[in-house]
Amino acid sequence: MQFPIRPEMVLIDVDGTLVDSVPDLTFCVDAMMQQLGRPPRGEAAVRTWVGNGVERLVRRALSGTLDGEPTDADFDRAYPLFLELYADNTSKRSHLYEGVREGIDWLAANGYRLGCVTNKAAQFTEPLLRDLGIRDAFELVVSGDTLAEKKPSPAPLLHAARQLGVAPDRALMVGDSVSDVKAARAAGFLGIICMSYGYNHGQDIRSAGPDAVIDSMTQLPTLLSPATD
Fold first, then answer.
1. Numbered ranges of CATH 1.10.150.240 in the chain
2. Taking a C-beta distance cutoff of 8 angstroms, is the pair 172, 193 a contact?
3. Is the model's pTM score more than 0.85?
4. Cα dihedral 8→102→160→187 (10° resolution)
5. What family, per the record (predicted)?
6. What is the pLDDT of residues 67-83, one digit of tens each?
7. Residue tagged active-site, from 13, 20, 180, 211
8. Whole-number pLDDT of residue 1
9. Would you say 169 is a known binding-site residue?
10. 15 labelled as ligand-binding?
11. Is 81 left (phi over 0), alpha (psi -120 to 50) or beta?
12. Does domain 9-20+94-222 have CATH number 3.40.50.1000?
C-alpha cells in the first residue's frame, strides 16, 4: 500500500489500541481466582490472554492457558463473579495510551469520520470510553455483543460501514491484534494499521501482515492525508 491514504472512515479498536485495560482486568481475574480459592494469575499472564472478550478471558484464567477449556461447572461459577467485579472496576486502573488523545484530535480536526469496533461487551465498553473522556469522539460504537459475531469476523466492521454509509474499500481499521487484521482483510477494507504495543497473545503483530505498524497514534499524520479545505 502506498501511503498517505485518505479513507472516509477510520474504525478503532479499544483494548490494546486506545486503552490499556489490563490493570483492571488483572485485578478482576485475580480477585475472581481468590474467591474461588485459587492462586492469582498476575498481569503478565493476563496480557497474553486478553483480546477476545471477557468470557474467553475467564476461560483462559481458569485453565491457565490460551486455548484451554475449564469444566462447565467451573466456568458457570466463575463467570458471574468476574462480571460483578468488572462492572465495579471497568476504568479504575485503565488508561489511554500515550498519544491516543492527540491522534483522535488530529483525525477529528481533519474531517475523518470515526467509529469504534471492539470485542468488549457494551456494558463495559460504553462506561470505559466515557470515563476516559473519548466516547464523544466516535459516531458509533460496535461492541462485542452488538452482533452475533465478533472480530475476527468481518461482520462488526461491515456493520459499522453500513451504519455510516461508507463503502468498505473506503474504510480503515486501526487495531493491535491478528483479529483486527483478519477482520479488516475479510471486510475488504482499504487498509489496516496496527499499534506495536497492543495485545496479540505475546506475538509480534508484524507477523500478521498489517499495512503499517506504528508506536503511537501521533504517527497517524505520517500515514493519512490531512484535510484539503
1. 22-88
2. yes
3. yes
4. 70
5. Belongs to the HAD-like hydrolase superfamily. CbbY/CbbZ/Gph/YieH family.
6. 989 999 999 999 999 99
7. 13
8. 86
9. no
10. yes
11. alpha
12. yes
* Residue 11 and residue 117 in contact, taking contact as beta carbons nearer than 8 Å: yes
Q: What are phi and psi of 19, to 5 degrees?
A: -130, 135
Q: Which candidate, 9, 8, 19, places its Cα nearest to that of 125?
A: 19
Q: What is the pLDDT of residue 229?
A: 56
Comparing C-alpha atoms, which of 116, 129, 125 is closest to residue 163?
Answer: 116
The CATH H-level (homologous superfamily) assignment of domain 22-88 is: Putative phosphatase; domain 2 (1.10.150.240)
Closest of 158, 119, 115, 104 to residue 139, by C-alpha: 115
The DSSP string of 22-89 is: HHHHHHHHHHHHHHTT-----HHHHHHH-SS-HHHHHHHHHHTSSS----HHHHHHHHHHHHHHHHHS
Which residue is associated with the grid cell 492457558?
A: 65
Asked if pLDDT for residue 159 goes beyond 80, the answer is yes
**C-alpha dihedral over 34, 37, 39, 44, to 10 degrees?**
-40
Cell numbers for 18, please give them.
Answer: 486506545
Residue the block writes with cell 471492539: 118
Quote the CA–CA distance of 176 and 118 in Å, as a whole number: 11
Query: At 175, which amino acid appears?
Result: G
Element housing 163 (H / E): helix 155-164
| Contact yes or no for 138/114 (Cβ under 8 A) | yes
Ordered strands of the 9-12 beta sheet: 140-142, 113-117, 9-12, 171-175, 191-195, 212-214
Identify whether 13 is a catalytic site residue.
yes
Contact indicator for 180, 192 with CB cutoff of 8 Å: yes
